[in-house]
Amino acid sequence: LYDAKRGSGRGKAHFFSAAHQSAILQNIAIEHALINGNLEDELYLEFQPIVEAGNGLPMGFEALARWRSPTLGQISPGLFIPVAERAGLISKLTRLLLTKALHQAGAWPAPLRLSFNLSVHDLSIADGLLPLISIITASGFDPRRLDLEITETAMMRDFAQVTQAIDTLKSLGVGISLDDFGTGYSSLTQVHRLPLDKIKIDRSFVVDIDKNPASHKIVKSLVALCRDMDLSCVVEGVETEEELKVLRELGCDLIQGFYFARPLSVDSIAGFLAGPERI
Ligand code: C2E
Ligand code: CA
Ligand code: CA
Ligand code: CA
User: Fold this and answer.
1) Nearest ligand 1 atom to alpha carbon 85
2) pTM for the full model?
3) Considering only CA atoms, which of 208, 214, 204, 134 is closest in space to residue 172?
4) Which ligand has the minimum distance to the alpha carbon of residue 81?
5) Mutate to test the pocket of ligand 1, among 102, 104, 117 (most ligand atoms within 8 A of CB)
6) What is the DSSP letter of 235?
7) In 3D, which of 167, 179, 241, 184 has the Cα closest to residue 209?
8) Residue 96 in contact with residue 67, Cβ under 8 Å?
9) ipTM
């Protein structure tokens, strides 16, 4: 591709390590497959339940993008979403996914909610946001049952534009969730100025919360903060009964994680909803 060597002497570091170089090649392959693929057929959604901490009953589902590429196989969104963002393809993906998600969620009984992830590019008013508003309006899905998730990092990237986009979306009645909270570097003053409905506490604070006093303290103060600001909070990535027990003691409202359910295929949602009473 290019001469990756920096300097000529023996033992000098390579500017691009082999791992970095293969990551670059992988991203090029992903971009190529996104451009040439039939995304309408290849992209689909799974839905992960978000449940009430107290009784385990679902309040809704988060839509999670999945991609089965005929050339590359199954690619995780952690890989292809960032590539789509950098390649200028994300608005197309978001429109396609949101259309599918609203259509599929249309089959769920009220008041179950749909959470959907937006990328920062989706919030630019003219080319990002307006098409999404048309999709929401045309879907017939009650916008008051829709939560749009925006990561903390995205919010902070262009605070003024994001605030304007959020105001526009809220005027439709949709809820706004601050995703991956705690992983960005927002100040509480900024968070306070946004008209948010929910905060999603990132999984990194939950891992080993039953054994790690630092995580325990952080989640405790985040939960208290949500209560002060009158926001509901979702704790993400709960995997064990021990973690759940601590989170219940801390007074968390909502839980999302493998302990309750993995992301489900659209066909298995009805079975999940009909399933046995959860604790
Ligand atoms: P996210 O929005 O933070 O979504 C939660 C991720 O955590 C999902 O990974 C989910 O499968 C995973 N997860 C849930 N519970 C647990 C648990 O108990 N343990 C562990 N280890 N993981 C858990 P997934 O589906 O691979 O998605 C990764 C990221 O890709 C998402 O993180 C989100 O940032 C992005 N993404 C997914 N779908 C979309 C989409 O439609 N649009 C956009 N813009 N981004 C998306
Ligand atoms: Ca999310
Ligand atoms: Ca998250
Ligand atoms: Ca995340």
Assistant:
1) 44
2) 0.92
3) 134
4) 1
5) 117
6) E
7) 241
8) no
9) 0.98
Task: Report DSSP letters for 83-105, one per residue.
Answer: HHHHTT-HHHHHHHHHHHHHHHH
Q: How far is the CA of 98 from the centre of ligand 1 (A)?
A: 16
Q: Cα–chain-centroid distance for residue 168?
A: 20
Cis peptide before 111 (omega within 30 of 0): yes
List the pLDDT tens digit at each of the 279 positions of the chain.
Answer: 444 444 444 555 566 788 888 889 999 999 999 999 999 999 999 999 999 999 999 999 999 999 999 999 999 999 999 999 999 999 999 999 999 999 999 999 999 999 999 998 999 887 789 999 999 999 999 999 999 999 988 888 888 889 999 999 999 999 999 999 888 777 667 788 889 999 999 999 998 898 999 999 999 999 998 998 899 999 999 999 999 999 999 999 999 999 999 999 999 999 999 986 544
